[in-house]
């Protein structure tokens, strides 16, 4: 089955991101195709490369990042939600005149149309959080 | 692109959290994709449609006028759950009068809001292909 995932909450505050991660991992293991993972609302904060959680805790952005690179996942951060919350990729940081960006590898920033397209193109869109 | 039945379910009050505003942003962007769109307002979500909102004292933008523009985006099916209104002491008169213009009938004005019972809304939900909940 072709599945897309929507993540609506940030890391740590809610369990939604953890659950979405576990679900995505399990779906891949079961042989399903992940069309896209879309991060919205505070979910965009899962894409930060600046998180430094305690060593005995899970590193949520890094877990997502590794899952994306290992499985060649298309993980999209909503640009409108990202701009409000200070999430920047290299191009956007440059465009806005910031010296640094904070997007971890494996994520890209794009528009809400990517969420609608994911809904249209996938057999299931599974929403976590909110 | 295939056309699917999308329903956006709005469950939160308009200002305490950002969900209502960012839900509306998805609806407006999504309208460009020519999908079969419905909106549902349940629970505290019914407060999103109340008229006469004034956000001056909380220093936030009053985005409620945007709902009146939904008709222009061809978003014409807005389901409001009757029980949710009643539980909050509200009636349809407390909500904005949302309309759309029917191009097939000389642009006659039609009501966008459909007042439905909880059971009826469940049936409408069951017909949907994509449900986005905010």
Q: What's the SSE blueprint?
A:
The complex is a heterodimer of chains A (130) and B (134).
Chain A: E1 2-7, H1 16-29, E2 33-39, H2 60-71, E3 75-78, H3 79-85, H4 90-96, E4 107-110, H5 113-121, E5 124-128
Parallel strand pairs in A: 1-2, 1-5, 2-3, 3-4
Helix pairs in contact in A: 1-2
Chain B: E1 5-10, H1 19-30, E2 36-41, E3 78-81, H2 82-87, E4 99-102, E5 108-111, E6 113-116, H3 118-126, E7 130-133
Parallel strand pairs in B: 1-2, 1-7, 2-3, 3-6
Antiparallel strand pairs in B: 4-5
Q: In words, what does this structure look like?
A:
- The complex is a heterodimer of chains A (130) and B (134).
- Chain A has 130 residues and is of the alpha/beta class.
- Chain A has helices at 16-29, 60-71, 79-85, 90-96, 113-121, and strands at residues 2-7, 33-39, 75-78, 107-110, 124-128.
- A five-stranded parallel sheet of chain A has the order 4-3-2-1-5, with helices on both faces.
- Chain A is globular, with a radius of gyration of 14 Å.
- With 134 residues, chain B is an alpha/beta fold.
- Chain B has one domain (5-133): Hypothetical Protein Ychn, Chain: A (3-Layer(aba) Sandwich).
- In chain B, 20% of the residues lie in helices and 24% in strands.
